[in-house]
Backbone:
């Protein structure tokens, strides 16, 4: 964890912020980190990696995402049983969405609407129109739905159910489940490759990532990735968040309490490295240019910044208490 | 690897033929004195709502695999248990969860025969896992030594090795006291003195009874050698609840009161337990007890094995759950699996003060060449069980 070599002086920083308000700099993106225990969202600048703001985000904020135009920030306020919507410029709350009890993870349609929310208490996936705030559908799934993903062509919605140990494939037109695939214990998170040919699903308690081939008539598990770090008890290698690079070369898997992120060669699905990050690494997000990957480290109250090309951790930044989720604002033309 | 991954898929694809899984829960109701605290009064549906929740959970999964679950629940006196079992066996039910004491559980396992699989969700006696183990009996309930090891590991981590043990006079207390002696020897704690609190009978709750208790307990705990902590051994719920704050020396109380090693507690929230607690509370209208959790877990073991093997045959289920392929998430932070040498479910043990989860054992640093969970309870080299081919 290298320290920042140079820190901009406060005067320079405020000037930069001032300029940022006038004309958006090309490379700076806001990074939003939900702090589960801190009841807040921390905001970082992706060029300086300095924390520039922190604002209250309701009770127990976890899942966090953003509209494709960068105008709305959605936060699952789990203990408020609602999804809170914030203005990413002013940090003011601009509304709430019905989510069912204890929302934890969700995924937005690539167009920005609707929002698909996993409701762990009710064994349902709720489909919410973000403009009208109406519930469009409720889809019964397995016990304790958790991970949510949507295929790049937006035709398939993915939900993982933690106690049923299944991946449910839901048709986004009919809201019907069209396939179910069993995976290992407590599936947490699902991530498509950019071309949609493969789906990666992490099983936290099983300690594996299932690789599902999406090119056949029916999805099928074609490989199971296992993890091994010398000196780390196998039961602490608990895969949670997954991210696939847009160029199709790498898969990154957050390994929870083992404090490691696994780097996987997407061509062979072999683990090629483990990067030491903060404690209880949970979710991750790329910057839009894919140069950096930010990991939330729940037990060390910081985020680690990974240089994606070098596959090295370049620094860590303190955020609020128990960071959980992270999203990076898209590039935006004013 | 590809084999394991492919197995459920092949089966899912051919799951058109519906499978019905028939199981039963037999709860043995003995007449017991009332508990010290009215908070501990046993609910009528104790254990049985755990069964109902597990059946719902299994059925939700079964919707996707063409499997239905039918669980019969019976609550009977010990003397009526054999007849209840016979009726179930005559009906073709061969997967049987028993929530009862050691004697009845063992008798039912023997009466059920080799074609049935009995899951012990209640009895903590070591002998059922050791000398009296049975090939057709698995143990979901933790044994006494798993519980005592879990607590003593924490006491050593806390650097409280000097224990004053106060044990009741009931047979279960004697067994639990022996478990603590073995745990103390295993982890390097010292029992500086053992005292027996004799149950002299009588009502346990009287109006303003605390007035007398407040005088009795300090006197009873007076004059003990220097100790760091009290371990109360009181399965029959006679005195332990009265020890905290009244004991002579200002020392914490653990064991059957204060900090308690338990398989489950309604306050536990970590690892997704909150949703599980809420599902149970919505169904039962009350918080979950350890008995409910243990019955739930027993039926989930069955459900998971059925999902993975596509069979409801007790022999197939037994072989699968004892194999290395079996694993189950149980809201305790790591997978639970079975010890193949005696059929005991490996599981973390919660240390609860009945308000929050204080810690979870095994404690960090207790290493094991196989599973750290095997630092809790007798390990493979010590086993006296031969029914599992060991």
Residues:
């Amino acid at each position: 964890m290298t320290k920042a070599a140079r820190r901009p002086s406060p005067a320079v920083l405020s000037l930069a912020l001032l300029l940022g308000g006038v004309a958006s700099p090309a490379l700076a993106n806001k990074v939003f980190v939900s702090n589960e225990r801190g009841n807040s969202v921390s905001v970082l600048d992706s060029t300086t990696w300095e924390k520039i703001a922190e604002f209250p985000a309701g009770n127990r904020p976890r899942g966090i995402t953003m509209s494709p135009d960068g105008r709305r920030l959605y936060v699952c306020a789990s203990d408020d049983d609602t999804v809170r919507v914030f203005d990413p410029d002013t940090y003011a709350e601009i509304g709430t969405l019905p989510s069912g009890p204890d929302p934890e993870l969700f995924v937005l349609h690539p167009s920005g609407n609707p929002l698909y929310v996993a409701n762990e208490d009710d064994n349902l996936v709720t489909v919410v129109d973000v403009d009208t705030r109406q519930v469009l559908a409720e889809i019964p799934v397995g016990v304790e739905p958790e991970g949510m993903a949507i295929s790049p062509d937006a035709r398939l919605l993915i939900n993982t159910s933690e106690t049923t140990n299944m991946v449910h494939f839901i048709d986004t037109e009919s809201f019907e489940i069209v396939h179910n695939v069993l995976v290992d214990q407590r599936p947490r998170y699902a991530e498509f490759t950019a071309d949609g040919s493969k789906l990666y699903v992490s099983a936290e308690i099983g300690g594996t990532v299932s690789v599902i081939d999406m090119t056949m008539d029916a999805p099928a598990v074609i490989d199971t990735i296992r993890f091994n770090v010398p000196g780390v008890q196998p039961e602490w290698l608990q895969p949670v968040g997954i991210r696939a690079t847009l160029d199709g070369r790498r898969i990154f898997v957050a390994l929870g309490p083992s404090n490691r992120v696994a780097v996987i060669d997407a061509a062979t699905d072999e683990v090629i490295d483990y990067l030491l990050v903060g404690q209880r690494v949970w979710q991750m997000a790329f910057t839009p240019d894919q140069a950096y990957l930010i990991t939330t480290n729940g037990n060390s109250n910081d985020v680690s910044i990974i240089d994606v090309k070098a596959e090295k951790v370049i620094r860590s930044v303190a955020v609020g208490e128990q960071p959980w989720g992270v999203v990076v604002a898209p590039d935006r033309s004013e | 690897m590809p084999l394991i991954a492919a197995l459920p898929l092949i089966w899912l694809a051919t799951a058109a033929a519906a499978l019905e899984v028939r199981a039963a829960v037999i709860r043995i109701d003995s007449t017991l004195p009332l508990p010290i605290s009215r908070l501990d009064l046993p609910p009528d549906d104790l254990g049985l709502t755990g069964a109902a929740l597990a059946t719902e959970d299994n059925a939700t999964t079964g919707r996707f695999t063409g499997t239905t679950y039918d669980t019969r629940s019976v609550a009977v006196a010990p003397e009526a248990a054999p007849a209840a079992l016979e009726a179930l066996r005559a009906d073709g039910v061969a997967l049987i969860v028993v929530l009862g004491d050691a004697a009845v559980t063992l008798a039912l396992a023997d009466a059920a025969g080799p074609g049935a699989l009995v899951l012990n969700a209640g009895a903590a006696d070591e002998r059922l896992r050791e000398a009296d183990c049975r090939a057709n009996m698995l143990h979901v309930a933790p044994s006494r030594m798993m519980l005592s090891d879990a607590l003593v590991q924490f006491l050593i981590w806390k650097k409280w090795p000097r224990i004053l043990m106060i044990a009741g006079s009931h047979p279960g207390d004697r067994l639990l006291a022996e478990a603590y002696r073995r745990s103390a020897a295993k982890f390097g704690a010292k029992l500086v003195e053992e005292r027996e609190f004799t149950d002299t009978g009588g009502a346990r709750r009287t109006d303003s009874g605390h007035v007398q208790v407040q005088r009795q307990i300090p006197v009873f705990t007076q004059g003990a050698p220097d100790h760091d902590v009290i371990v109360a051994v009181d399965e029959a719920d006679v005195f332990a609840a009265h020890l905290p704050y009244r004991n002579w020396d200002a020392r914490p109380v653990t064991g059957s009161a204060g900090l308690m090693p338990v398989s489950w507690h309604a306050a536990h929230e970590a690892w997704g337990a909150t949703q599980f607690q809420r599902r149970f509370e919505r169904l039962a209208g009350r918080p979950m007890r350890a008995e409910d959790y243990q019955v739930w877990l027993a039926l989930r073991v069955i459900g998971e094995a059925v999902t993975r093997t596509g069979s409801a045959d007790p022999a197939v289920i037994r072989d699968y759950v004892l194999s290395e392929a079996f694993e189950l998430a149980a809201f305790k932070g790591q997978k639970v699996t079975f010890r193949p040498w005696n059929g005991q479910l490996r599981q973390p043990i919660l240390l609860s003060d009945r308000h929050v989860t204080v810690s979870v054992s095994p404690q960090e640093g207790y290493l094991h060449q196989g599973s750290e969970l095997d630092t809790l309870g007798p390990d493979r080299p010590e086993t006296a069980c031969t029914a599992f081919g060991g």
Remarks:
- Chain A has one domain: 28-328.
- The longest strand of chain A covers residues 220-226.
- The longest helix of chain A spans residues 10-22.
- The two ends of chain A are 35 Å apart (CA to CA).
